TrEMBL record:
InterPro entries: Polyketide_cyclase/dehydratase, START-like_dom_sf. Gene3D superfamilies: 3.30.530.20. Coiled coil: none annotated. CDD domains: SRPBCC. This is Polyketide cyclase / dehydrase and lipid transport. It comes from the Bacteria.
Amino acid sequence: MSDLVASVEVAAPAGTTWLALTDWNQQGRWMLGTEVRVVSGNGRSVGSRIEAFTAVAGIGVKDQMEITSWEPPVRCTMRHLGSVVRGTGAFHVQAKGPQRSVFIWSEHLTPPFGILGRLGWPVVRPVFALGLRHSMRNFARFAESYVVGE
């Protein structure tokens, strides 16, 4: 298993940050190379399923997830169900006053492809982490100007 954690300060109230974060259909506006959609349930309850497709130069990976914990406006946890992306992930929002919050994204992943994946993870991890940090900065800008239903 491999753990990744990233956080970003957001100049928006925690409730706004939460709404922006869990607006699944809009995640492509801030998540690097990724399109996201709800495929089962309402996307706002345990058992709902979310699908993300991340691609670089036309080559991509589908990530199928199920919400395992839904605690608005604080925490959402997911289980990755795919053959390539496996493990758990969590989005956490912490209030830092009336107009500020912190978004924390954590992943506990099992590299695919057995021993080859475990050996290759130290090479892939820095690139993955770089993309994650880039997406987090994008998210902060997205959340700071977020309008519900846009």
